[in-house]
Amino acid sequence: MNVASNGLRIPDGFLWGASTAAHQIEGNNLNSDWWQMEHSDGPIAEPSGDAADSYHRWREDMDLLAGLGFTDYRFSIEWARIEPAPGAFSRAEIAHYRRMVEGAVERGLRPMITLHHFTVPRWFAERGGWTVDGAVDLFERYVRATAPIIGTDVRHVCTLNEPNMVAVAGAVRELGAEAPPTAGLPLPDKATTDALIEAHRRARAAVRTISADIQVGWSVANQVYQALPGAEAMAAAYRWPREDVFLEAARDDDWIGVQSYTRTRIAPDGPLPPPDDAERTLTGWEYYPQALGHALRHTAQVVGDVPLIVTENGIATDDDSRRIDYTTGALQQLAAAIEDGLDVRGYLHWSALDNYEWGSYRPTFGLISVVPDTFERIPKPSAVWLGGLSRSRMLPRASS
To answer: 17-41, pLDDT tens digit by residue?
Structure first.
């Protein structure tokens, strides 16, 4: 992929870094619903176990990111650790995550904190999850309890990560073995969707009460629905419950997180699988770096003047040269969007580390590899390259 020698200068204050999720890197999240599912007779083939042991090795992870040249680090805090039993908040865990915030700041990394990244406490799931009466109240109570963690030194808070995927997961659980093995996504559970939107609004208000200095938003998984000729109405109808309803809910936010990996083509009768000749990643997704540009533009069209932050973008591959190529293409799209006037405030790559990808360690998204037996961290060439862009303050432009 050709890149013009004259790049686009990264705007001052632009967030430049990488993202992680607690359950995927910490290890031994014993009180979460995912840990319970991993150790049941369900469909999860590989448990998370020790993950990357980042619960104990977070200092090393932050040292690496700062040393590579990154200025920002998005990480999540784990509700199941902070509130392992209903109403019982762990002072030790709150102090642990506060040390992480302080540690990031000490290293010159601006922390973005995600309050919920897919997992919930086991007790919350056992009482029925998001759709049970009082569930939103319980989430709001947890958010208020995070005040000692996020009250100072934290500029950006993400309430919920990819609520549209949480609602899809709710639908899959309802369907069970009847879930159709088709292209695209199942129809999200409507009750879960409604509960998550209300949870976000309540959490947003709670965070603003904790500190008026915090900019609060949430992140949405953008599937880049591309209508084939004659399928425009189908694409719009298909996209609304799976994406746009969640984007609309961000209109009063301080920012919206754009998370993009690939595209979904929509025919008049529904979604299509990737083209037969398409390159596939380790997750089976189509290699399509242009998705980020489409995702940014569509999100901006829906949310209006709400600033955009790319909170996840990356590729599952064991060929790091393809990661650099993919990310180059994505960043070219980012640069073009900024030049066209979109208010993009940051780029956070997924992921900082190779980690637990919700059932398997095989899909490697990380800029930094983790040796399973020793937990040794080894930065990949892509990490050095991406950190170098931060140091140079330049985004690659596509050649004309």
So the answer is: 999 999 999 999 999 999 999 999 7
Q: What is the CATH number of the domain that holds 211?
A: 3.20.20.80
| pLDDT greater than 70 at residue 108 | yes
Question: Which of the four pLDDT bands, split at 50, 70 and 90, describes residue 3?
Answer: very low
Residue 222: inside a domain, yes or no? Answer: yes
398 falls within a domain: no
pLDDT category, 68, cuts 50, 70, 90?
Answer: very high
- 400 belongs to a structural domain: no
Tokens of 124: 């919350």
Residue-level pLDDT at 2 = 37
Give the DSSP letter string of 329-397: HHHHHHHHHHHTT--EEEEEEE-SB----SS-S-S---SEEE-TTT--EEE-HHHHHHHHHHHHTEEEE
Alpha-carbon Rg of the chain, whole angstroms? Answer: 20
Looking at this protein, which amino acid is placed at residue 5?
Answer: S
Q: How far apart are CA 160 and CA 195, in angstroms?
A: 12
How many structural domains comprise the chain? 1
Residue with tokens 């190779």: 354
Place of tokens 């995702």: 295
Give the β-pairing of 264-267 and 255-260. unpaired
Closest C-alpha to 138, from 209, 205, 208, 202: 202
Whether residue 288 lies inside any domain: the answer is: yes
The stretch 163-188 carries a mean pLDDT of: 75
How far apart are the C-alpha atoms of 160 and 218, rounded to whole Å?
5
Domain, as residue range, for 288: 3-391
